[in-house]
Amino acid sequence: MNIELILTLVLIVVLIVLFIYFNSKSIIKKTQTKLDVLNHYKKTLLKLLEENKDNKDLQETKKVEFLNTVKDELSKNRFFDTHELKVILDELEKLEYK
């Protein structure tokens, strides 16, 4: 009887550890994917601004168009909530070509 209880407890602990391990990997993967998306948008915007570095008005126009495109894309993406969308747009809005 005592051995059965110990084996059951060991099995429960192993299952809990496996659950936590696989669940945390999923969270890390989602976070990394979101960071990848943000970095992609940053690179794209910086490239767009660099292409128009001689014309500040055109830069601003292209930036606004790009931000609207990003907003449309991310608002349709079920992995980003409205707060994350706002944070990403704010961060992209601050970017400037130097």
Question: What are the defining features of this structure?
Answer:
98 residues; mainly alpha; 85% helix; 0% strand
At a glance:
This protein is an all-alpha fold. The chain has 3 helices and no strands.
Please explain how this structure is put together.
The structure is a single chain. With 98 residues, this protein is mainly α. Helix content is 85%, strand content 0%. The protein contains three helices and no strands. The protein has helices at 2-51, 56-75, 82-94. Helix 1 runs antiparallel to helix 2 (56-75) and helix 2 (56-75) packs antiparallel against helix 3. The longest helix is centred in the N-terminal third of the chain and has 50 residues, at 2-51. The chain is rod-shaped. The mean pLDDT is 84.
Task: Give the helix/strand layout.
Elements: H1 2-51, H2 56-75, H3 82-94
Helix pairs in contact: 1-2, 2-3
Strand content: under 5%
State the order of secondary-structure elements, H for helix, E for strand: HHH
Biggest sheet details: none
- Overall pLDDT score: 84
**Helix segment count?**
3
Q: Termini distance? A: 73 Å
Strand-pairing-aware structural class = mainly alpha
Rg for CA atoms: 23 Å
Shape: rod-shaped
E-strand count: 0
Note poorly predicted spans: none
Q: Percent range for helical residues?
A: over 70%
User: What's the multimeric state?
Assistant: single chain
